[in-house]
Design brief:
Elements (H helix, E strand, L loop, with lengths): L7 E3 L2 E7 L3 H18 L4 E5 L2 E6 L9 H12 L3
Antiparallel strand pairs: 1-2, 2-4, 3-4
């Protein structure tokens, strides 16, 4: 299964870095992703570096990327705009 547009497969996870206009907007994005993750009970690794937010979706219990990761990667990318 290939990575969705703008996402890369890195060490068994779908990974993408988003650059937001400001630090507060980056944190607001993280909060939106956190709400999605809690609702779906599936949580990405998240790294924040000033205006950049890196998300990594993988399913540890399945040993890699699943359809659920693809869906949540797509849905989290929609939250960036």
């Amino acid at each position: 299964m290939s990575a969705p547009s703008d996402w890369q497969v890195v060490d068994g996870a779908l990974e993408r870095t988003f650059e937001l206009p400001s630090f507060p907007e980056a944190i607001a994005f993280v909060n939106r992703v956190a709400e999605l993750a809690e609702t779906e009970n599936h949580h990405p690794d998240i790294a924040v570096s000033y205006k950049k937010v890196t998300l990594r979706w993988t399913t540890h219990s399945e040993g890699g990327i699943t359809d659920r990761d693809h869906d949540l990667a797509r849905r989290s990318a929609e939250l960036a705009s």
